[in-house]
Amino acid sequence: MLSLLRPLQAACIYLLLLLLPGGQGRIAGYTNGFHYQDISNGNGNGEIYFNGIRLHVESPQASVSATRGSTATLPCHYHYEPELTTPRKTRVKWSWLPANTVTTHVSPEAFLKETEVMVAMGNRHRSYGSFRGRVRLRRSAPGDLSLVINELQLNDTGRYRCEVIDGLEDESVTVDLELRGVVFPYHSQKGRYHFNFFGAQQACQDQEATLATFEQLFTAWEEGLDWCNAGWLADGTVQYPITAPRDGCGGENLAAGLRSYGQRDRILHRYDAFCFAASVKGTVYFLEHLTKLNFTEAIEACASDGGQIAKVGQLYAAWRLMGLDRCVAGWLADGSVRYPVTKARSNCGPSQPGVRSFGFPSPHLKFGVYCYR
């Protein structure tokens, strides 16, 4: 009988150890917010005494919005209650969950998908991957561990975690980073519904953009985007925005909103793409030329002017973020012909602002050209 009780007793002790603060079986992402003294301050047998000091990690902003190529600061501050009379050695780790993997419900598994951005202790720090050389801690005041990211890239969007570690205790806070920009629908020269997920990714990249996230498409819908063709998003879902319900777009009796096909097979299924373009450092402009140009002549004309033919994402960003307004059709790098209108007027298309498209005409036809430099 005694031999049967021993395994049960051992199991109970193991479970108790898991539940103790600082136990080796801590659940990922869990913290009780309290600080415990080092083992050297315990009883010498590994038992640690609670000293009543609480570690707080906070951010005054849940999200930060910035433009591509700029510098963004993600705020993170820590302090103790009650305040300490002597400073303690703490370590901070910033990690990142890319925008295409962020969901409204953060499960413990999400912590395992985070990528390290930077770790620091005292004056020593190390950055990782694409963030190497682009990140630092602000340290503008005691307890300030805000992350400064320079030269923001399109793929930097997502959820960042600031984790402060003191001995066996840690606390963390998250800050979302968003890029200001514009969402635009994009389809192949072959027509509608020719991209699988990876083709859609590449198509957006080719036009100086990325696949839009759900949040970016939702914001675009709130701002009036109405498009009846389904397109890939960064999370692998296929959706489209409708502001004016009608037949053929889910039906006129269905409320306005995002229509979703849910997750689709990323290789087999074919749709269009919703791309997201952020601001560009250079300038997009309509090239004043004595004559209209075919596609080849348009490329050469931009090169002769010290630039290059503009991409679709660059034109959309210039229209939305820089106010580019020209009622003249021009070639773009993908072989399409478009023009941007910020102030709608007669003979310039629909009554709303937007980028007008002529599709992909024959490369021998003559138009103007939009250049970038």
Explained architecture:
The chain is α+β, with helices and mostly antiparallel strands. The chain has helices at residues 2-19, 108-112, 197-206, 214-222, 295-304, 312-322; strands at residues 34-36, 50-58, 63-66, 72-74, 77-81, 91-98, 115-121, 124-127, 135-137, 147-149, 158-166, 169-179, 181-186, 210-211, 231-232, 237-242, 257-263, 272-278, 284-286, 308-309, 330-331, 337-341, 354-357, 368-372. The strands form 5 sheets. The chain has a 6-stranded mixed β-sheet. A hairpin with a 5-residue loop joins strand 21 (330-331) and strand 22 (337-341). The longest helix is centred in the first third of the chain and has 18 residues, at 2-19. The termini are far apart. Residues 1-43 have low confidence and may be disordered.
